Automatic annotation (TrEMBL):
KW Membrane (keyword) present: yes
Name of the featured protein: ABC transporter integral membrane protein
A Pfam family it matches: ABC2_membrane_4
Taxonomic placement: Bacteria, Bacillati, Actinomycetota, Actinomycetes, Kitasatosporales
GO molecular function annotation: ABC-type transporter activity
Region (Disordered): 1-38
Length: 320
């Protein structure tokens, strides 16, 4: 038997030696199934990893408690406004900022959604995001499960992306909880009809609802910078509680700095500076300047601190 015949084996013709049998039909041999496409396998694994992270986030008692607190804010605001306006009087506001929505609630329950977002955005919403983002990596490290996650063929980059995506999903969920709770309470306690915008124009209820959906999307987008910052802090420590406290503490500090008039030159670069720009959606025409600046600033924070989190996490020595 020649060397070529030995290499090819029976059933292989000249010029075929060394070729794999996968996906070929040779005489006397069965066709072997082709291996699955690597990219398809990675995509399925990434989606599964993202789904697993979502379950981890939304099955925690702490997360459900945060959502319950957020849902309770519109209820408290609605009851307070209802009690104050039961004799026909009006509530404060009127300067065109977030609290100005309060004076419109008694005339149209839809405004309770806008007022609730304005009430929760400075602290309650970002605090919830800071807790979830700060616990994303550090929480796994403190319980000793992070090392076992990295044993699976996920890769650190995909694992970090899945965690960030789950935090962003929580941003959307938390915002929608506030909006839905406010809509239920507002429609139950106050009249609903055509919407009078902050600019004085009147639009239909359907137009007002569409503007409300856009506002909810803008509020959720306003939190992506904080989410990236919290994720970065979470990669710096093995203590989940420490990462959460550091994120929330930094949030409070930045909010204080953002309200000190003497630091006005620094304030446009702070991530919460343009948060209440969503109120400009309730004008005709919509004023986009502050909204665009807010989205650009959030994208910048997400890029900087997301990259920092990736650099830290992919080079970190995981011992727990």
């Amino acid at each position: 038997m020649s060397r070529a015949e030995t290499t090819a084996g029976p059933g292989l013709q000249d010029g075929e030696q060394g070729q794999p049998l996968v996906g070929r039909q040779d005489s006397g041999r069965e066709r072997l199934p082709a291996p699955p496409a690597p990219r398809a396998g990675r995509a399925v694994w990434t989606l599964g990893l993202f789904g697993s992270e979502l379950l981890i986030v939304f099955r925690r008692v702490r997360t459900l408690a945060l959502l319950a607190v957020l849902a309770g804010v519109p209820l408290l605001v609605g009851i307070a406004v209802r009690i104050e306006t039961r004799d026909g009087s009006s509530v404060g506001g009127g300067d065109g900022g977030g609290p100005a929505f309060l004076e419109q609630i008694s005339n149209n329950g839809l405004f309770l959604a806008f007022a609730s977002l304005a009430a929760t955005l400075p602290f309650f919403l970002p605090m919830a995001i800071g807790v979830v983002a700060g616990d994303a990596v550090a929480g796994e490290a403190s319980t000793g499960t992070l090392r076992y996650l990295l044993v699976a063929p996920a890769g650190r980059t995909r694992l970090l992306l899945a965690k960030y995506a789950s935090v962003l999903t929580f941003c959307v969920a938390a915002t929608l909880v506030v909006v839905l709770s406010a809509v239920v309470v507002g429609f139950s306690l106050f009249p609903v009809g055509d919407v009078t915008l902050l600019s004085g124009n009147t639009v239909s209820l359907s137009d007002g609802i569409l503007r409300g959906l856009l506002i909810a999307l803008l509020v959720a987008s306003s939190l992506i910078g904080l989410a990236a910052l919290g994720l970065f802090i979470s990669t710096l420590t093995d203590s989940g509680i420490g990462a959460m406290a550091a994120t929330v503490g930094l949030l409070i500090t930045i909010q204080i700095v953002n309200n000190i008039p003497q630091l006005h030159a620094l304030q446009p670069y702070l991530f919460p500076h343009y948060w209440l720009s969503f109120a400009d959606v309730m004008r005709a025409p919509v004023i986009w300047d502050g909204i665009v600046k807010n989205l650009a600033l959030q994208a910048l924070y997400a890029a900087v601190f997301g990259s920092a989190a990736w650099a830290r996490f992919t080079t970190r020595d995981i011992t727990s």
